[in-house]
Design a protein that fits this description.
Strand 7, helix 17 and strand 8 form a beta-alpha-beta unit. This protein is 56% helix and 11% strand. The protein is an alpha/beta fold. It has 20 helices and eight strands. An eight-stranded parallel beta barrel has the order 1-2-3-4-5-6-7-8, surrounded by eight helices. It is globular and about 65 Å long. Helix 7 runs parallel beside helix 8, helix 8 runs parallel beside helix 11 and helix 15 runs parallel beside helix 16.
Length: 454
């Protein structure tokens, strides 16, 4: 598709279209599910959003929960974390006083464990791919496809990396076998380029090797590549898609080099379908996108690379890292700047088709509506844009998009609670950010404000 330079009049038309699409999508949300945080304890989320010290204490508690040996132990940890909060809200202050009594501690520990488990199950669809199949089949029946993310981050030993690779291999096989019998859904299985695999598994390079370090990137790349290639072969055999996730900035260059180098190999010239992630909260993401697009012009691969555009989930980590080392901040610190960059990257990606397949991952109604509107204005077909959400956060948006005939994919984490803690805490950070679109929507912020240009 040719690069489209929009005149000011076109920009005005784009904004009108964004508002029309956003208003229509909002009207498709079930009235009983207007607030994406409904299933969480909204009062707890409000408290955490208003008090950063309380947020830190609660998230530390969530992180340590799987390691607690008993309900009494769990309650003791909660009490100690909350003691670090200078002005605990009355309900939590009362719980702290009750925690001095052994019988009460058991009750508090049980309630706390149930709360954390409830939140985890909202985001994590099952401990194994087999256990997740019911959820994935239900999504498919509702017109939503999925990408299964096998939880597990930053392995530290070779046997751990081997086990993660084996889990990915098993997931590809199990999912492909089960999904083969699902009913046909053309909108989820085909775009103008051709067939789109039903089976889609997300893989983390940091879990495929314990050697991924910035000071020795080549060693980590070689080690991870030895486990990635068999997964690509298995995906090719099964007609499945492998998507490579991006994590924190310190591993990005190694992951970029690894993915582009391996996919350039002759063995993978005709498959499998594969993709990678672009993080819009990074200031240099436009340069990274140009690097990807330059690669697509020379690699000679037949299947287009799928680029999943996200805002990014490691914002706090990147800020802390930069502060500790005295580095320039690599991420946009103002939400509006990140949102503007996300829209610019969306347009650049859509203009680059068919060299890439485009997957826009956002729960922000403005960002999603912008992608749809720009795609249409640029002459693209709806079927050539994929819209992605996180299961547990974007469920209502996914259903609204599916009801309007769009291809939508839910990102579905699979794994046990211990492996999922880092993921769960990142999702809670998104929910409790004062600038979060979901938080603003849950507060009842007006549609005109939510759809306003950043």
């Amino acid at each position: 598709m040719a690069n489209v330079q929009l005149m000011s009049s076109d920009r005005e038309a784009l904004e009108r279209s964004i508002h029309e699409i956003g208003t229509d999508l909002a009207s498709a949300f079930p009235s009983s599910a207007r607030h994406p945080l409904r299933a969480l304890d909204q009062r707890a989320m409000d408290l955490a959003s208003a008090d950063q010290e309380l947020k830190a204490a609660l998230f530390r508690f969530v992180d340590v929960t799987p390691a607690c040996r008993s309900l009494d132990d769990l309650a003791r940890h909660l009490r100690e974390f909350l003691r670090e909060v200078p002005d605990a809200p009355p309900p939590l202050a009362a719980a702290m006083r009750m925690a001095d009594n052994r019988a009460a501690r058991t009750a508090i520990g049980a309630a706390a464990a149930a709360g954390v488990k409830h939140m985890a199950h909202r985001f994590i669809v099952g401990e194994t791919p087999a256990a997740a199949l019911g959820v994935l089949r239900d999504l498919w029946n509702r017109g939503v496809t999925s990408s299964v993310d096998l939880l597990g981050e930053a392995t530290v030993t070779q046997p751990e990396a081997d086990r993660y690779a084996a889990r990915c291999d098993d997931a590809l096989t199990e999912l492909a076998r089960a999904q083969r019998g699902w009913p046909s859904r053309d909108v989820l299985e085909r775009d103008s380029v051709g067939a789109i695999p039903r089976t889609n598994v997300s893989v983390k390079i940091s879990a495929l090797t314990p050697l991924l370090r910035p000071d020795a990137p080549e060693l980590g790349r070689r080690d991870a590549a030895a486990r990635l290639r068999p997964l690509l072969r298995r995906a090719n055999e099964l007609g499945a898609h492998i998507h490579i996730d991006m994590e924190s900035l310190d591993s990005r260059e190694a992951v970029f080099d690894l993915v582009l180098d391996v996919l350039s190999e002759d063995e993978f010239a005709t498959g499998p379908s594969a993709g990678m992630v672009l993080q819009a909260y990074l200031r240099d993401s436009p340069e990274q996108l140009e690097r990807i697009l330059g690669w697509t012009r020379t690699c000679g691969r037949t299947p287009p690379l799928t680029v999943r555009l996200v805002k990014g989930a490691y914002w706090d980590h990147e800020l802390v890292q930069a502060s500790q080392h005295g580095w320039p901040t690599p991420v946009f610190e103002v939400k509006a700047d990140c949102d503007r960059n996300f829209e610019a990257l969306t347009e650049r990606l859509l203009d680059a088709r068919p060299a890439v397949r485009v997957a826009v991952a956002s729960h922000n109604l403005r960002s999603v509506s912008h992608a749809i509107a720009y795609n249409r204005l640029a002459g693209g077909e709806d079927r050539d844009l994929e819209l992605q959400v996180l299961r547990g956060l974007g469920d209502q948006l996914a259903d609204a998009l599916a009801s309007r005939g769009f291809r939508v994919r839910a990102y579905c984490p699979v794994g046990d609670l211990v492996a999922g803690m880092a993921y769960l805490v990142r999702r809670l950070l998104e929910n409790t950010s004062n600038e979060s679109f979901l938080y603003e929507q849950a507060k009842g912020t007006g549609l005109d404000v939510l759809l306003a240009a950043p």
